[in-house]
Amino acid sequence: MKLNHIDHLIVKYLNHSINKDELDELNSLLEQPENKEIFKDYAKINYSIDYKLRNYRAENVKKYLQDRIRKDNNVFSRGRFLRVSKYAAILVLAVGTLLIFQKDNAIQTTSEPFHKEHKITLEMENGRSVILQEEATQDIISEKGEVIGKQIKQGIQFKDAELSELVYNTLKVPYGKKFQVTLSDGTKVFLNSGSSMKFPVKFIKGANRTVFLTGEAFFEVAKNKDPFIVSANNAKIRALGTAFNVSAYPGEKDVSTVLVEGSVGIYRYKEQFSKEHSTVLEPDHMAIWNKEKKEVIVKVVDVEMYTAWVSGKMIFRNTPFKIIRKKLERHYNIQIINNNRELDEKVYNAVFDVETIREVMQTLDESFSIKYTIENNKIIIE
């Protein structure tokens, strides 16, 4: 089956293999109404097939396509039917080839270094995942074929769509990456490496604006009478319009909240917000929620230390090496094996921004005599 040029570009877009020049060309072609219709047909069928392929079986997909084509034949004219059927066949060929390739190469993935999932993804309500290429510009399309947002390089902005119920997406950012999302209410969220956030495509007026965080994020909350709530590791952080940082990585015993401006309240996951049962923060303060002891400690901090990552910096001041090591692993997507236990408890001062991991380790060695070797994606400290 020979694809027209527009077909070829759309298929490459849908299976995430399109390059920047092709994406620019596709955007230009989609300005024509007839091409928009072609794209819409592709999108609807691709998303439906993609949902079925989550538990892929060839016979199931074949039966699904036959049912879909039969249904389209009853609804559309013959010309429309032939066009939709052609798209379905093209997409099955493209997706089928991809599945065969993945199956044939499954064994090789075990040798990939450390965190092999190195792509930023947006997971839709139905479980379908979209890979977000950092230099791409693309529309974010729902399973219904509707445009709900737009990605422009390293950020997504969601529209204030007309929805009567909560529909959630989950943004996942791997080690070595960062990403920004502007929610439908205008709230800006900067996600750090190794983090994910589940959030509604649109908030419901009159209800809490709740998002669910794993990892670390900086929030610039849009002012609104509806409270904005971050749920993270059995703790909740409540705000109306403010700027703050939350760190709640898996495996860490504490959830820390650093307030830049405004006011936030920290309280237990299962409780309702109240002044009596919450810890209210002032700017330039940090609240540390201990998940095991279920208690909060508040202290004055240098805000820049905890928010500099948003602009690409890492600032360490009297920081134990075990914390530095974890931050370096996330920032550079590298595994650090420390065989010097005494080193973990020592504190250091350093600032890094544009350095490579080799330059960082060289600086640490020169300043603090840290001996190490680098093997592939691992740093081994003697």
From TrEMBL:
Domain FecR protein as annotated: residue spans: 171-264
Organism of provenance: Arenibacter nanhaiticus
Domain Protein FecR C-terminal: from-to ranges: 313-381
Phylogenetic classification of the source organism: Bacteria, Pseudomonadati, Bacteroidota, Flavobacteriia, Flavobacteriales
Gene Ontology terms for molecular function: sigma factor antagonist activity
Domain of life: Bacteria
Protein name: FecR family protein
